[in-house]
Amino acid sequence: MKKTFVLSVFVVSGYALFAQTTKPANKPVSKPAGSTKPASVAGSSSGLKTTMDSCSYAIGMLDGNFFKMQGVTEINAKMLGQGFEDMLKNKPLMSPEQADQLIRRELSKMAKKKIQPTIDEGEKFLAENAKRPGVKQTASGLQYEVLKEGSGEHPVPTSIVKVHYTGTLINGQKFDSSRDRGQPYETALTDVITGWTEGVGLMTPGSRYMLYVPYPLGYGIQGSGAIPGGAALIFDVELVEIVKL
């Protein structure tokens, strides 16, 4: 299974504003029928009396919406404003790198808290699964079960391999299968999830293993497509061929 690369979080307000408001240069912006004047959001009834009022509010609104979608539910408005002003004056209390790391760390905590039931369910499954005869566990927490042992050399992390596989959640729901597509999946082991890099590395051509993958060795707290964040995964993997050792 291929890795999923997560785009960096835009922390600086200007970047978030640009990303959410920029339109293609050659795409016209339509006006309401019969309108001859550009629409304005400024007005005494809304409190947006000047263009600066409107622009300032828009920046706050767009950034607020972005971080709301990340799970932020409350903020210290005074410190938020101070941080913005300090950056404009080039006198911030922390470096942009420190701010980025802090935001990433806190958003990660929020995301993990949201998916904690899924994490707990997976850990409970793996704890019980480890007790079954034939199931082995590596130091990383990866569990595997040998269905058929092949022969020959083991692939290394930089190898290119052909495999057949079926991937399911721990409730049995299938999310992907090369067998359903009718052809083996060819990939470099550097391009797949950590659980696969390690698990397929234990195999030899002709082997068929069940791999039981904890979420840190799978798709982490982000998940991917039909795979929820924090989910433990099960793969039925057959190593067909080592294309390049």
Care to give the gist of this entry?
The chain has helices spanning 13-21, 51-69, 77-88, 96-114, 116-129, 178-181, 194-201, and strands at 135-137, 143-148, 160-169, 174-177, 185-188, 208-213, 233-244. It is an alpha+beta fold.
Features:
elongated, alpha+beta, 7-stranded antiparallel beta sheet
Structure explained in plain terms:
This protein has helices spanning 13-21, 51-69, 77-88, 96-114, 116-129, 178-181, 194-201, and strands spanning 135-137, 143-148, 160-169, 174-177, 185-188, 208-213, 233-244. With 245 residues, the chain is α+β, with helices and mostly antiparallel strands. Strands 1, 2, 3, 4, 5, 6 and 7 form a seven-stranded antiparallel beta sheet that branches. Strand 3 (160-169) and strand 4 form a beta hairpin. Helix 1 crosses helix 2 (51-69).
Overall, the morphology is elongated
Listing every helix as H and every strand as E from the N terminus to the C terminus, the arrangement reads HHHHHEEEEHEHEE
User: Low-confidence runs (pLDDT<50, min 5 residues)?
Assistant: 5-39
Strand content: 15-25%
Radius of gyration: 25 Å
Q: What characterizes the major β-sheet?
A: 7 strands, antiparallel
SSE diagram, text form:
Elements: H1 13-21, H2 51-69, H3 77-88, H4 96-114, H5 116-129, E1 135-137, E2 143-148, E3 160-169, E4 174-177, H6 178-181, E5 185-188, H7 194-201, E6 208-213, E7 233-244
Antiparallel strand pairs: 1-2, 2-6, 3-4, 3-5, 3-7, 6-7
Helix pairs in contact: 1-2
